[in-house]
Amino acid sequence: MRKQILVALCLLAAQLTFAQESITLFNGKNLDGWVNHGEEKWFVEDGELICESGPKGEYGYLSTDKFYKDFELTLEFKQEADGNSGVFIRSTFEGTKVSGWQVEVAPPGKDTGGIYESYGRGWLIKPDPEKDKALKMGEWNTMKIRVEGPKVTSWLNGVQMVHLEDEKIGEGEGAIALQIHDGGGIRVKWRNIELVPLD
């Protein structure tokens, strides 16, 4: 009996370990596994994923070619030349029209870490303005996003920015995507994009 319990515990531990294995979404070499939406520039340089405004200065997105439902995503970003961007969850695309939810990446005072619904309800939640000091403009920042059912939580450099429970988000399905905002003159770098599935 004791041996059976031990075997069962070992199997459970193996399953939990497997469920928590990290998936590298960006390989540091090319854009394999990603889909470009729009005419803005996405390229790899020195192991970093870079987005830049194109000549038209319109919205642009780079999405995963797979859908992810429940997960914990960590990535690093460095804002240069404005830095208005974002990380989309459970999102789908028609050209450059996105349906989904954005965890904001923006210059100081512009609600980095907040959650915005594009072509829908707009801002769902913004961080306390006092938390904006967690953002290091022009330096590498670490963002963590946990999405589980209707719950979304964001952290910036270890500081919890927002927590939201939303039924509509809970029903959503789609890709993870990086955004470049319209307006032109934007440049943001990304690296170490890792995902741990929770389902």
UniProtKB/TrEMBL annotation:
Residue ranges of domain 3-keto-alpha-glucoside-1,2-lyase/3-keto-2-hydroxy-glucal hydratase in the record: 22-195
Gene3D superfamilies registered for this protein in UniProt: Exo-inulinase, domain 1
Signal sequence residues: 1-19
UniProt keyword annotations, A-Z: Signal
Pfam families associated with the record: 3keto-disac_hyd
Protein name: DUF1080 domain-containing protein
Taxonomic source organism: Flagellimonas yonaguniensis
